[in-house]
Amino acid sequence: MAAAAATLPLLHPPVPKPATQQLHALPLPTRLHPKTHPPPLPLLFLLPRRRRGGPIAASPTATSSSTSASASASPAYDAREAEAAVAELLRESGASPADADAIAARAPAYAAMLADGVLELDELGLWASWSSGAGARVGRGGAVEMEMGRLGFRRKVYLMGRSRRDHGVVPLLESVGVRLSSAKLIAPYVAAAGLPVLIDRVKFLKEMLFSSSDCATIIGRNAKRMMTHLSIPADDALQSTLSFFEKMEARYGGVSMLGHGDVSFPYLIESFPMLLLCSEDNHLKPLIDFLEYIGIPKPRIASVLLLFPPIILSDIENDIKPRIHEWEKAGIEQEYIGRMLLKYPWILSTGVIENYRRILSFFNRKKISGTVLGIAAKSWPHTLGCSTKRMNSILELFDDLGISKKMVVPVITSSPQLLLRKPNEFLQIVFFFREMGFDEETVGKILCRSPEIFASNMENTLKKKIDFLVDFGVSKHHLPRIIRKYPEILLLDINHTLLPRMNYLLEVGLSKKDVRSMIFRFSPLLGYSIELVMKPKLDFLLRSMKKPLKAVVEYPRYFSYSLEGKIKPRFRILQSKNIECSLTDMLAKNNELFAEEYLGTGGLLQKPLP
Hints:
Layout: H1 2-7, H2 65-71, H3 75-92, H4 97-105, H5 108-124, H6 127-132, H7 144-149, H8 153-164, H9 169-175, H10 180-190, H11 195-210, H12 216-229, H13 236-249, H14 261-271, H15 280-293, H16 298-307, H17 310-313, H18 316-329, H19 334-343, H20 350-365, H21 370-379, H22 388-400, H23 405-414, H24 423-435, H25 440-449, H26 458-472, H27 479-485, H28 494-507, H29 512-521, H30 530-544, H31 550-554, H32 563-576, H33 583-587, H34 591-598
GO molecular function: nucleic acid binding
Family: Belongs to the mTERF family.
Keywords: Transcription, Transcription regulation, Transcription termination, Transit peptide
């Protein structure tokens, strides 16, 4: 047997076929929330600009002696001087020397903007005009042209920076990745907090939201799912969140990068600048404690906040607790509310809460108990963001397949994600089965038995399993019988379930033809655990019962019977009477028939002989 197994090639995972990327439309934008998208403020000081970004170079036609001297300097030297001037401005605004140097090094556009202003004034000889405007704010008056001509480039950049009066907030925002244009608009809103406070707050927010990368993949996947399944009008909080996601989608990696701070934090601040005004001690820390209290594990709190940032801006007593109370009134226990928040933080949106009431009314009209909606929401809270129009279209398709109202309940409670399907996606699955020769009644029975099939992906799940079975040698003619008997086979993972079981049967000495025959006769075979079912039962068959391996080929249903509850007791009865029989005769009969034939009694075999 071992030699035979050694010569048989094992199966290997199929090469995945490239899937066509699906594009999902976002809801149409509505009005923006005034807290998260304030109207732009006029800038305090703006000079015409010749260029943006790039190395800072001195103009060869500068009129003052200082710029003539700096013209001979290299661009790298000018950039370092401008960076040093920015660091000095930051220190003057209260930043520590280490923070000032680090921020200045990551704010090249801000330094270039100041340097451009200096070089333009040098070139055009407009320092006198500057002194009467922005320069007056830093105390530069009198014979400005002569005085400025004696100053070095670094000093001029420093004075230019002081004249802007952004108190170091703009370079701070640029240093965390915010675009310079956005940083200049945000700075007036938050500058009053003070640079040292804002530096500490930025550090706290990044630590709070991005300290763990374990959930980054889950965050991105859930963000896509939440956007895809939202089919109700977005309220202000949802709209600002969707706008944030749209900004992420516009860059490489999209919302999949939501859990990566270097990528998403700048967009988060641009979308929700008021986060910088949230006190750590009075707001952020109490919020974290409250979320932990309602059952969200601390490492997962970042996931909830990134998927719905308006929570961070919400007041615990006036906003969050009343909305949680709404779900408690709907019959959702607090322990489930924490789990629902992990999957779907948008349950704290007023729009989703209002939609729940619409869905409940819709279920009542359909004569479906509100309890069903509660069960569905606990396992798939995304259904709470689904419109009743979409739900109704799916229920109508259920009716077309002959699904009674009585059977709709177990279908929805076992696979509530079906309510989120678009009609054309559901019909694709129906047509898939119709093409295999099933009538509508049989398709309806498959839906009732395994509704999850109709929520799966056509290309990546269903067709992939069919192709795998055909590649193994299963006849297309036999596929309808295999699927009718065990439709769940379409949901089994190829690499973790189907391949290991097939390889195990090949390793013990069966041929591919034998395995194909067993699948045709008893397709649930591929769903049994190797260690818990196949191996112990096969060992008992070969070692204790002394039957050939071919016996399971003729009767693969053998693996479906309990080893301790049926196989061993019946074998011992037959062994005690020296009776030899096939596995079919031994196991296929019920207790009464078995007792009548092998024990000579007409009564039910209540307890097997020892």
